[in-house]
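Q: Could you fold this chain for me?
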Amino acid sequence: MQTTVNPRRFLAQEVSLRPLARGQSAVTLGGLRIGRISHAALGEGKSMWMWSLTGPHCEGLPEQTPTCGSAVTLAEAKLQLRHAFDSWLGWALEQDGPVHWHWTEAQPERPSGVGEDKFTFAN
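A: Sure. Below is the predicted structure, expressed as structure tokens.
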């Protein structure tokens, strides 16, 4: 489902990680899902954290703006997703009016505050 949002709604908002399924979390901001972070076991004690922007409509972004990636640690995946979203937000704020969004409400899997990991984007 696609809708439109005013990108200013994301300024000074706290970001949350909400469990979806084993090894997968939704990343939410301002009541909307902005992305996903997933954990994958690679074997031999190795693992990887994959992230992607899944809410923002990214058509029209400069090619060098990443919309997905991978990291060795969860902290690194969060940081990479943060930088990607900040790049999208900077682009979105330059647009004249609302921008497209792929999801509507971010449905919590648990009562608010339970199982959430919060982090803040710098704007």
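A (continued): The chain has a mean pLDDT of 81.
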